[in-house]
Amino acid sequence: MSTNGDLRIMLIYGLLIYVASYMLVLSSLMIAGIEDYRSRLINDKLWIPAIAAIPLTIYLAINNMIIEGGYIIDVVVGVILAASIYIGKFMGEADSIAVLLISLATPPPLILNPMLLILNLPIISVLINSVIPTLTLMMINIHNNVKNRRRCGNLSLTKLILLRCSSVESILKTPLAYSSPGGSLIRAGSDAESYVSNLPKDSWIWMMYNYPYVFILAVSYVIYLVAGNIIADYALMHALIIPLISQNVI
Q: Model confidence over 30-77: pLDDT tens digits?
């Protein structure tokens, strides 16, 4: 009885640490994501809850061999990605911090199958899931461009997808959300304020739109908590499981 009771307490304790880690990371990502969407400026203090989750996740990893192996892989992938983003300036500093904290502070799932475990590691799942909010924001951008096309004129497919027809006034309110039309597609940066400084505030122009990647990662993290690596798992199900079921039925 005492052994079963101790085991039950350990399971409950482990589950509480799991949930606490997820909630701490989620709280940081959601608040930082909202700030990123609004202004592209994120206060470093917003990462404190996620940082607090790191020792909890490490504790889970060192006390469970399944979690430990997945955690090591997740951390290695996260550190490499975060370093590449930061050094290459492919996204902002906050984006690299978000990637690093997702891998360091999120415990991997308890999955015995190695392939499923790797596919459902936090950082891999979040990055693959990010396709969903990215495409959603892209469709919203296209809708806005179609709606405002007469204000900017000279609409093309490239402008429709990659740029945003915006007023100078809105650009000056959130300059980090924009770059000049000839700005880099792969490197983070904003020269929007200097680019429009001599233009009337009520004029409209085509600008490069800098997507809020921390916001995208936050939404992707919510998708991960609710449904795992929804894209990869769905693809794997159709590639392997459904053919097997069909063969058995036949």
A: 999 999 999 989 999 999 999 999 999 999 999 888 889 999 999 999
The answer to whether the beta carbons of residues 92 and 109 sit under 8 Å apart is no
Contact criterion met (CB below 8 Å) for 175 and 193: yes
Q: What does the alpha-carbon distance between residue 61 and residue 79 come to, in Å, rounded to a whole number?
A: 17
pLDDT in tens, 159-202: 888 899 999 999 999 999 999 887 766 666 778 888 998 899 99
Decide: 37 and 118 in contact? Cβ < 8 Å.
no
In whole angstroms, what is the distance from residue 80 CA to residue 68 CA? 18
Q: Is 152 left (phi over 0), alpha (psi -120 to 50) or beta?
A: alpha
CA 227 to mean position of chain CA atoms: 15
User: Residue 85: what residue type?
Assistant: I
pTM: 0.89
The whole-angstrom distance between residue 172's C-alpha and the CA centroid of its chain comes to 26
